[in-house]
Amino acid sequence: MLTISDFNLKIEAIKIKHGFDTYLETISYFLEYETDQDPDKIAKHLNKKIIEELHREANNLGLLKEQEIIIELL
Fold first, then answer.
1. What is the DSSP string of the chain?
2. C-alpha 11: how far from its chain's center?
3. If both were cysteines, with which of 7, 17, 22, 23 could 2 make a disulfide (CB 3.0 to 4.6 Å apart)?
4. Which long-range contacts (CB under 8 A, 24 or more apart) does 32-39 make?
5. Cβ proximity of 44 and 13 under 8 Å
6. Distance CA 33, CA 4 (A)
7. Model confidence over 19-69: pLDDT tens digits?
C-alpha cells in the first residue's frame, strides 16, 4: 500500500485523468478497478480534505443523515 500522502495524490490523479466530477465517483472507480483492498482500509487512508468533500457530496445527494460519518458510507 502507498503512503497516506501518495495514496491521496493517486486519488487526485485518478479524478483528473478520468474527468470525474466528484470524489464519490473517483473512489467508486478506484475500489472497483484499481484495488482489491477492503473499503474500510481505504477509507482510513483518505486525508481530511477528501473526507470533507465526500461528506459534502453525499450530503448534497441526500445520502447522509445529519450526524452520519462518511466512513460509514464507504
1. ---HHHHHHHHHHHHHHHT-SSHHHHHHHIIIII--S-HHHHHTT--HHHHHHHHHHHHHTT---TT--HHHH-
2. 8
3. 7
4. 37/1, 39/74
5. no
6. 19
7. 999 999 999 999 999 998 888 888 889 999 999 999 899 888 888 766 555
Give me 13's grid cell: 490523479
Distances in whole angstroms, Cα of residue 34 to Cα of each of 43, 68, 71: 15, 27, 19
The single residue listed with the C-alpha cell 478506484 is 30
- Residue 15's CB: how many other CB atoms inside 10 A? 19
481505504: which residue's cell?
42
